[in-house]
Amino acid sequence: MRLFAFAAALLATAGCVPLAAPPAEGQVGVGARTNRSRGDVPLQVRASVRPLELAPSLFYRRADFGVGYLLDKGARSTLQGGYLEVATIPYVGRPVLDPQEEATRRSRHLLPEGDTVRRFMMRGQGRLVYDDGMHEVGGGFALQLTYEWAAFALSPGGFTTNKSGIGSVAAYGEAGIGFFAEGAFMHFPTSDTWTASAGVVV
After folding, report:
1. Bridge-partner residues for 165, per DSSP?
2. Residues 194 and 35: beta-carbon distance below 8 Å
3. 33, 197, 31: which is closest to 131 by C-alpha?
4. Predicted structure pTM score
5. DSSP state, 58?
6. What angle do CA 37, 38, 43 make, to 5 degrees?
7. Which of 76, 157, 188, 195 would suit a FRET pair with 83, their CA atoms being 20 to 30 Å apart?
């Protein structure tokens, strides 16, 4: 789970706090947005939920999906709304393992803590957003290329102590970091909008 252990550690400084978080991914980027009458350079923020990140047996998967929220805040207008995403993963760089160890892991569906992968993903998104500059609702699609490094945490939890008291930290799910490049098209009743952007994935 992305940033799960980090968030847990922060909350633990305030005492013993139970923590639950979804299998979430965040993106922050910047790009160029244009239509026939105006241009803009928006700051882009994405937040999505990806259920497959909770399954150790799917760590080396070749496909993914998620649902999310997007916010593109520019000087001229702000776009915000939701999206549904499907992805294909044509490249998964796996660790080199002893053949016997690999067979044991597969037979038991185990993924020991510390395994990491490199992924190249091609993502397609269907979007429904509101443009507060034109006061219109529009729909469209985006194609995103993503490269990331990911690991799977299998920690049952533990306790840490500090001056504020005792805190509990647990981590389960995927954690990763990477970058993306994206092109998007949106159709509104009075105009079409194109966007090209890039940023980081956490």
Report:
1. 162
2. yes
3. 33
4. 0.76
5. G
6. 150
7. 76
